[in-house]
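ok so I'm stuck.
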Amino acid sequence: MAVTAKELAQMCGVSRMTVHRALTDTGRINPQTKELILTKAKECGYRPDLLARGLVKGQTFYIGVVVLDVNNRYFSQLLSAIGTEARERGYFVNITLHEQNKEMEKEQLERLVDYHVDGIILSSVNQGSEYRDFLRSLDTPIVTIGNKIAEDLPFVSIQEKKAARQATEEILHKGYEKIVFVCPPLERTEENTYVHRQRLEGFKEAVASWNSGEACIESIVIDRNEEYVERSYEELLSTDKKTAFFCSGDIFALDIMKYMGAKDKRAGKDYGIMGFDGVDILDYVTPRLNTIYNPVEQVAKEAVKLLFKLMNGETDRSESVIMDCEMMAGETL
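replied:
not stuck anymore, here's the structure
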């Protein structure tokens, strides 16, 4: 059985306050005494009672994270980076998945609050001012990432629209005459699709600007749903127009490349394709996918940083952090 701080103090012949100073590296303490305490603590397998410390400070040393799932590598990378950043601050992470279920998301948030987590990072499927008011009623610091819920909520994201516009312009400059934008269903859902809507707007803006001149580029927007999965991609390539796909997510692009590969169609040769996010599994895909690099690790760091500022009362509820993206060169355009 591990020793307590009181027992450790008795072993070293010092007060509990001196033990506290040695273990937390705070206050004035004789260097030799500090070394004695640290050595004895290691020998005896001393472990701090975080629950007791939390009760004293009014903290649990846990933050909650609520995201869609871990099947998408973007979220897996995000969670890993959040966990690393939290550990460096002496915190643990309680992860929950809402699976695009709006009510489940609310239940998970309430459960995390009931467990007295010190703060929450949320990638939401809900949206609107009413939901913003619900989040505020939880009386817990919350930082939102990715999908914007409403104004006046702490928010960390990237320049989605700007990045999509630049990516579309890159495709156009490659000489493609038809671009197919592939995204999740946007019009037939009440879910928060802010991220993909921003990317679609950037795509439309680039095409409209390009077509304002003498050029005339054909653009098509299709939902990545069951009907889309069963649709023949080859039909989209059946015309004489040089065609490219711009996918609002790398996973959509990989689906297309897999299907077309089975039909002996090669990306970068028979058609062009651009993804979005730059997930790590692209390192194992040939040909290398052209994509937009979404700096997921930096998003995670900024979200944790902003959350701790909120928890410490160092900022208000309206602060946002919006970061730039960059294109990753590949072999598919």
